[in-house]
């Protein structure tokens, strides 16, 4: 049961000027990655944050504890870059899984990963306290997968999805970024894949956060079009949803559901319940934020929890109504997706 209802902020909750309450913290733990997805990173030349500037696991947990114990955060999702490339990643999961809300509820720890190492590590991560996972997968065709990720790793990722299900992670979701002209012809194949393997496919609209600056509106496959293509083969009905970004649809024949994330065509900013921490300790109130709050410097200078909490509350208080993708006044953030943490 959530600690508080969506309309009633708990004591110390992070409430913004539009009455939205932050309950979900996305923590990027590295900007490095073993893939180079075309819609995210350039083939070469990406500059990475020096290791000394990354938050240590102890620093991440210190901040996460403050968010969970004092600021109303109920779930923490680890992302990156590729979070599993960081050494002893399971150690961080076990440290975070020990955190409790003021109501003594365990924080829900989840992961977004490219899945390349899940076949080896899924069980270890579950033992450490991981509950759920989202695995990114944009093509079921080996050659296209290699062209998109610039790595020949489709079989490793498929094995990783199976290992995640076998290890008891629940739900296992598959994130598929649909780029028009690149993989839109596989929408139905993905739907079939999800129905067969009992995993929820979440189709994500391509967002202007690629490091190469190749995004354009005509490459965005609108979520409505994705849903109608699938519904023509397998009738669907909408599922009521809360603050989550995905609009969910259930197959009428009972074979599971899909999600679509219409960040571009139907932004869900009005329901946003998330805030973010980058790998180098910058606090962001939005994926598209152009301003950030440095928490690493005060943390390393010995700031108290009360001082840090005040900085965070002020930043959330000034959170904007939402991004303006596709409008003339949209300003692209200076960081790309792998540097923010998707
Ligand atoms: N490396 C992990 C992974 O790929 O799952 C976690 C980090 S990745 C940046 C998080 C999510 O962002 C992935 O599902 C990825 O497909 C998505 N993503 C990256 N660039 C994107 C873009 N330009 N538009 C939409 N989604 C994007
Ligand atoms: Fe790496 Fe994930 Fe970006 Fe692909 S989407 S390059 S796996 S961080």
Instruction: Give the C-alpha Rg.
Output: 19 Å
CATH A-level architecture: Alpha-Beta Barrel
CATH C-level label: Alpha Beta
Let me know the CATH homologous superfamily: Aldolase class I
What is the averaged pLDDT score? Answer: 93
Major sheet summary line: 12 strands, mixed
Total number of strands: 14
Overall structural domain count: 1
**Could you spell the SSE succession in H and E letters?**
EEEHEHEHEHHEHEHEEEEEEHHH
Flag low-confidence runs.
Answer: 1-6
CATH fold-level label: TIM Barrel
End-to-end Cα distance, whole Å, is 26 Å
Could you describe the 3D structure shown?
Residues 1-6 have low confidence and may be disordered. The chain has a single domain (15-340), classed as TIM Barrel (Alpha-Beta Barrel). Helix 3 runs parallel beside helix 5 (154-166). Helix 2 (89-97) links the parallel strand 4 (75-79) and strand 5 (108-113). The protein has helices at residues 57-70, 89-97, 118-128, 142-149, 154-166, 187-197, 223-233, 296-300, 305-317, 337-340; strands spanning 14-15, 21-22, 24-28, 75-79, 108-113, 132-136, 172-178, 200-205, 236-239, 247-251, 257-261, 274-277, 282-284, 293-294. The strands form two sheets. The chain has a twelve-stranded mixed beta sheet. It contains ten helices and 14 strands. By secondary structure, the protein is α/β, with parallel strands linked by helices. The longest helix has 14 residues, at 57-70. Iron/sulfur cluster binds at residues 33, 35-37, 40-41, 80-82, 114, 136, 337-338. Iron/sulfur cluster is lined by residues 33, 35-37, 40-41, 80-82, 114, 136, 337-338.
